[in-house]
From TrEMBL:
Keyword annotations of the record: DNA-binding, Transcription, Transcription regulation
The protein, known as: Right origin-binding protein
Domain HTH araC/xylS-type: 11-109
Region annotation Disordered: where it falls in the sequence: 130-156
Source organism of the structure: Mycolicibacterium chlorophenolicum
PROSITE patterns the UniProt entry points to: HTH_ARAC_FAMILY_1, HTH_ARAC_FAMILY_2
């Protein structure tokens, strides 16, 4: 079976969701962007992408919320609003259904972003390089005046 590329009008609607997931978007808005009736758009979108337009929008919002939970310290309620959802309770329930954990537990289970930060090799080498041992007062090091031997203290 050959895979058929989605029609451009459906991709316009999908792109609209990807770009404006945080805004209040309705299926009517998406159908208008695709130039189709609501019923025909919903049926065609679901057949093409395997999920309804509303489910796709919810998935995008939850993916963005998961990213914000992993990479920021913003409160869960603020993240909920940032991704276009209005009910923290519904957000928590939907998030737990999708990710297996409520948002706060998901954040706690993820290592901090700094753990995954790549350190440039020049910095890593600098910080892991053995340090030269300083031998203050050794007889073989030149003194302050350029002569061999330990520096001689000059008195008052």
């Amino acid at each position: 079976m050959t895979q058929v590329r989605p029609a451009r009008h459906l991709m316009r609607a999908k792109d609209l969701v990807d770009a404006r997931y945080a805004e209040p978007i309705t299926v009517d808005d998406l159908a208008a962007a695709a130039g189709l009736s609501r019923a025909h758009f919903s049926r065609t979108f679901t057949t093409t992408f395997g999920e309804s337009p509303r489910a796709y929008l919810q998935t995008r919002r939850l993916e963005r919320a998961a990213s914000l939970l992993r990479h920021t310290d913003r409160p869960v309620a603020e993240i909920c609003m940032m991704v276009g959802l209005t009910s923290v309770g519904s957000f928590t329930t939907s998030f737990a259904r999708a990710y297996g954990l409520p948002p706060a537990a998901y954040r706690a289970a993820m290592p901090p972003a700094a753990v995954h930060a790549r350190i440039p090799s020049c910095i890593l080498g600098r910080d892991t390089r053995p340090r030269a041992v300083s031998r203050v007062g050794a007889d073989s090091t030149p003194g302050e005046d350029g002569t061999s031997g330990p520096p001689v203290a000059s008195g008052p």
